[in-house]
Amino acid sequence: MTGPGPIPSPISRRRVLSGMxxxxxxxxxxxxxxxxxxxxxxxxxxxxxxxxxxxxxxGTQGPATDVWAYNGGVPGPVIRAKRGERLRIHVENALPQxxxxxxxxxxxxVAMDGVPFLTQPPIKPGESFVYEFDVEDAGTFWxxxxxxxxxxxxxxxxxxLIVDEDTPPDVDREILWVVDDWRLTEDAAIASFDRPFHxxxxxxxxxxxxxxxxxxxxxxxxxxxxRVRLRIVNVANARIFRLTFPGHRPWLAAIDGHAxxxxxxxxxxxxxxxxxxxxxxxxxxxxxxxxxxxxxxNSPEGIRYRLAxxxxxxxxxxxxxxxxxxVTWAANPLPEPDLGTATRLSLDMEGGAMGGLQTxxxxxxxxxxxxxxxxxxxxxxxxxxxxxxxxxxxxxxxMFSFKRGxxxxxxxxxxxxxxxxxxxxxxxxxxxxxxxKPEPDRPWQDTVLLPIDGExxxxxxxxxxxxxxxxxxILEHQKSGMMGYVKVV
Length: 489
Fold this sequence. Notes:
Elements: H1 14-17, E1 43-55, E2 65-70, E3 79-82, E4 86-93, E5 102-104, E6 128-134, E7 139-144, H2 149-152, E8 159-164, E9 173-182, H3 196-201, E10 209-212, E11 218-222, E12 227-234, E13 241-244, E14 251-255, E15 258-264, E16 271-273, E17 278-284, E18 292-298, E19 304-312, E20 343-351, E21 359-362, E22 365-368, H4 369-376, E23 380-382, E24 385-386, E25 400-402, E26 406-414, E27 420-424, E28 429-434, E29 437-438, E30 444-445, E31 447-450, E32 455-462, E33 466-472, H5 475-479, E34 483-488
Parallel strand pairs: 1-4, 3-8, 9-12, 11-19, 20-26, 21-24, 25-34
Antiparallel strand pairs: 1-2, 4-6, 5-7, 7-8, 9-10, 12-17, 13-16, 13-18, 14-15, 14-17, 18-19, 20-23, 21-22, 26-32, 27-31, 27-33, 28-29, 28-30, 28-32, 33-34
């Protein structure tokens, strides 16, 4: 995957492996997650205000950064509920442009999905909108804007959404990491958005500063022998995180919020998390008092970013009991696709640099790749069609139409020189094969990463009526053609 060219870095190279200190933020998942707020009946009320704010992204010793934030913080506040409860979220827009909020990974009514022009009018500056929906599935999810998302997310608008299981796993505590990267200038300001062509035609808007919960690398104090549930959410525009946990062997216990049979990592194995995706780990603290272990992102650009240090304190007074391997959590109530009777479809992705888009259909007309790029700012296609930017009352034809309850098997092929995380709204799918080989455990996901020249076969039941966005979650690719929608009637 190709990233942007040289960008001035606001942080010294110390942040890569040795790290850089910084005070803990008010929102920090280096502590236990906040408990559930008291519900009124079966409804949990939250308020989000999207507005400009100033935060110490690079630590209290460096200059502050002007961002766009929910409730003044980056990331936004934890929205939390129990499975089966109803969320009511009042969103106020104090930004200088319209916005919406999409609830990534949540199966919900289409009117609450937060896609401008397709499912709702944008929330104009000074206006508000109330989102209300039941949460059917437990797991780790998140929220972000879908209006001008490549800029609004890059400026800081995102936040975690946690739905608790009926019976949570047996751990000592729970930690949340919202991982992100930022393109900053020397004075820690968000760099301008003046390179759209390069970012759209290549790998997206890569940053030069990696943060966990809105801060550069910090220490995570741990106790020998404790077992932790670590929830990780990738909210970056384009960065695919490749994390290693030296000195430890975590179990991968959930993908995109949905349980998988726990699989233990070797010390040199990477945990790959694409933009929009999530992973839940069970992590046993097997180090000794006084030891430190860096959790590192093995970036494809060749730079190793240090996310945090696991710093071991004193041993507990009583030795920790031996821990059995974690068990698979209870499954969410997802409809199982019938592979024998399923409708079978193909989706080919084309475009971008190093190959590019030769010709494609756009607004009913066959155009050359050069014309699409120069005159329309479009660089990517699905099945030879470049889908137009969505405008109210005019967002093109659906990519596919399904009858409610129809089982679907879709083969997605990446015919480009870049990796793409593909996200389907309103549904959850099984990944049943990759590159023609069966996928172990057929995990449930809502965001599937297609590597260069990769192929994935997904299966789902189209049981949620409405028009559902289907797009690459590298937000610059979404903006420039790799976006459409499916219709369920």
